[in-house]
Automatic annotation (TrEMBL):
Protein name per UniProt: TRAP transporter large permease protein
Transmembrane annotation, as ranges: 6-39, 60-79, 99-129, 141-164, 176-199, 227-245, 251-271, 283-304, 316-333, 340-357, 363-391, 403-428
Keyword annotations of the record: Cell inner membrane, Cell membrane, Membrane, Transmembrane, Transmembrane helix, Transport
Name of one Pfam family that matches: DctM
């Protein structure tokens, strides 16, 4: 049987395993090993299986993931997320949709610490959802706001997805972080505009909060000084070239420990829990990465990515039409799969296609994260929507689905802006790097 045919069959088998509920990392590893054995023989496949797991987890570049996950855990257990939410409400709460806007801003800040959509959504779901309901916000709109704002977790540095994309495609993670800054802030502004206009048009969705004095507003900034210190220290240091991304993760962990020490808000039990949660999250990520590497080797020797790249490059369509088809596929997959699994599954297949079509890889990385964000809130699954529904079981998932569409529209607008103005992602890296 031809290697390309085996590649197609292997891809189909892996999708079947995932649908059956087999862990994505195990699915990719099993299919990759069997495919390697079928093409190169059992000895070569066993040799690959012997070396790949160790070489993957021992990769120095991947240590940054553990460090940023730990920094986010320490910041969460130190209470920084609640302080940011309160400060945002002090400034924005009196506006139409003010509490929803505060949630969007707070999600951006939390995302700048943990770099994960699901972690940001879960954290702010616990913090913001009870407050929004207490102020009389309609449950579906409140839940949809948290679910959609949680997507900002990967649209600001240090995005875990961009780190993995950079490692898999041998790109500069620092340049990827700088590339996502302007698109991430633009999406933040679009979300704020959506929250404002939706409640302005339908005030019963969310009543206004009390208007705070300027003194109270500036006092609230004092309470988020620790969070701002961490963000400026880590993100500013990396973008300014003072240290590498890996060093930035280590500096962030040290900074989070120092902040927790000064605040006296991190007990030994909390520290233990933060370390355990970091270990669990990191182990899950590394398991998926290892499976993806094995599967990637199989795809490489099957020549399937190269054949697909040549096929798409020779299509009689404009390259933007081909990219539009890829985007639709990612939106569909995002509605069914976790963002991490989707990234590791598809990059070995589509990155050669993107290269053949001569798209900038840094621009594509930002676009990819943005498209995945849209998939994370789309029915029939929409992982973020299920996370919020699990936190507050009194809100039907159907109500959340009905309320997400204005925010999803903001992502679509952002996608068009990325095509119309590629420099949204490319200008800052050209200046800083």
């Amino acid at each position: 049987m031809e290697p390309v045919t085996l590649g197609v069959l292997g891809l189909g088998l892996m999708i079947v395993l995932i649908v059956m509920g087999v862990h994505i990392g195990i699915s990719m590893a099993v299919v990759g090993f069997l495919g390697m054995a079928a093409i190169t023989g059992m000895d070569a496949a066993l040799g690959m299986l012997q070396t790949t797991p160790y070489s993957t987890v021992a990769n120095y570049g991947l240590s940054v993931i553990v460090l940023f996950v730990l920094m986010g855990q320490l910041a969460y257990h130190s209470g920084l997320s609640y302080d940011l939410y309160k400060a945002s409400f002090t400034w924005l709460g009196h506006l139409p949709g003010g509490l929803a806007m505060s949630t969007v801003v707070a999600c951006t800040g939390i995302g700048a610490l943990c770099g994960s959509t699901t972690a940001t959504t879960a954290t702010m779901g616990i913090v913001a959802l009870p407050e929004m309901k207490r102020f009389g916000y309609q449950g579906g709109f409140a839940a949809a706001t948290v679910a959609c704002a949680g997507t900002l977790g990967t649209m600001v540095p240090p995005s875990v997805l961009l780190m993995l994309y950079g490692v898999m495609c041998s790109l500069s993670i620092g340049k990827l972080f700088s590339a996502v800054v302007i698109p991430g802030l633009t999406l933040l502004l679009l979300y704020l505009l959506v929250a404002y206009l939706v409640v302005l048009r339908n005030p019963e969705l969310g009543p206004r909060g009390p208007k705070c004095s300027w003194k109270e507003r500036f006092e609230s900034l004092y309470h988020v000084k620790d969070l701002l210190f961490l963000i400026v220290l880590v993100i500013g240091g990396m973008l300014g070239g003072f240290f590498t991304v890996n060093e930035g993760g280590a500096v962030g962990v040290l900074g989070a420990l120092v902040v927790a020490g000064f605040r006296r808000s991190l007990s030994f039990a909390m520290l233990k829990q933060a370390l355990l949660d970091t270990g669990k999250t990191s182990a899950m990520i590394f398991m998926v990465i290892t499976g993806a590497m094995i599967f990637g080797y199989f795809l490489a020797i099957s020549r399937l990515p190269g054949e697909m790249a040549q096929f798409f490059a020779e299509l009689p369509f404009h390259r933007n039409i081909v990219m539009f088809g890829i985007i639709l596929l990612y939106i569909f997959l995002g509605a069914l799969m976790d963002e991490l699994a989707m990234l590791l599954l598809t990059i070995p297949i589509f990155f050669p296609v993107v290269a053949a079509l001569q798209f900038n890889p840094y621009w594509f990385g930002v676009l990819l994260v943005l498209v995945m964000a849209s998939g994370m809130i789309c029915p029939p699954v929409g992982i973020n929507c299920f996370i919020i529904a699990g936190i507050d079981k009194s809100i039907p998932i159907t109500q959340i689905y009905k309320a997400i569409w204005p925010y999803w529209g903001a992502i679509v607008v952002m996608l068009f802006l990325m095509f119309l103005i590629p420099d949204l992602a490319l200008w800052l890296p050209s200046v800083l790097m």
